[in-house]
């Protein structure tokens, strides 16, 4: 069996092929902070004999726990014994081969998210650096790949900043650790790492979302967005779309937009747009009408109809597909309405009819209270707080999320208050919320 079989997903006529690099065939090894590059860990200096099996998506702590190198982090006070992990730099490594027909294609190495500061090498060549726990990033690697041979990918995860390590080692409380996190990380780092309420002080590290190779025939589509707009009588929706088109050459192309309902057997809506590519990276806006849309409703109010928008860029003759991108969405009219004022606006304070005393009581400031209205119907919001479902954010799989979100839906939840100090969660969380009718706020 070829190394890429069972991992590559492609549609023969859409111009795009993908090779998923996520899996259990990675390894990790550590060095003192700053030593890995000196010892050429990106190439022949990687200590294979001192490495451990790793999983992507995942977390360094999880890999070490499974290897027996740290105690179970959720048992007793074990989390206090593992602070040394974040004081070292960690190197991921994986070997792979690409399909033979990729030799003349344009190929990108795409990371959905890495926690936190990383540098990447391919076959010993430096590709670049990225900082930030949540933002995706990618590199064009067509010239660095070897067709018909093994390719080696090395990813360095830098040690946590010294001030964060020092604060945790001092035994400081969550507020001090949180302040250290905010000062040390210029981009958002999940505040649960500070030991907030339910959490242990674990500074997460690792490739916590998927990694893939994307091959196209020249043009490349990314960052596809669709925003439906509709109003009564809801017999049509206006779809505002935006996509980034990257092309190595200026050319005439056509973009084909196809919308199909994922939850009903309706005929697709297909429209095209002609375009002169005038820049290497070009943002392409477009809008068109989706007739008779099936609406998305919150849990308990109706079905959760969902759609998929597929955009295909073709050569000027309209035949050869150069690339393809998709995004799932729902169609709904969401309005936030202000509640009418209650007759008695004084709540949650002692009540007295004694006028001489009443003026001494604290009066609450006026509050804005809102009603949720969807598709013209007022919705009673029922839900609870959603916090990170695991302190090791890369560990949960789809079935882990599915069980929790299904349980909430069975308990008649139709919304989650997503904790603002926590995680910008994985796409699977939002997808399952859409499917269950549970709105993340």
Q: How would you characterize the overall build of this protein?
A:
Residues 1-6 and 348-352 have low confidence and may be disordered. Helix 3 (162-169) runs antiparallel to helix 4 (174-184) and helix 6 runs parallel beside helix 7. This protein has 7 helices and 24 strands. It has helices spanning 35-38, 60-66, 162-169, 174-184, 355-358, 398-410, 427-436; strands at residues 8-10, 16-20, 23-32, 52-56, 88-96, 106-111, 117-122, 125-131, 137-140, 151-157, 211-216, 220-229, 236-246, 251-261, 269-277, 281-291, 307-315, 321-329, 334-338, 370-374, 377-379, 383-386, 415-418, 439-440.
What's the topology here?
Blueprint: E1 8-10, E2 16-20, E3 23-32, H1 35-38, E4 52-56, H2 60-66, E5 88-96, E6 106-111, E7 117-122, E8 125-131, E9 137-140, E10 151-157, H3 162-169, H4 174-184, E11 211-216, E12 220-229, E13 236-246, E14 251-261, E15 269-277, E16 281-291, E17 307-315, E18 321-329, E19 334-338, H5 355-358, E20 370-374, E21 377-379, E22 383-386, H6 398-410, E23 415-418, H7 427-436, E24 439-440
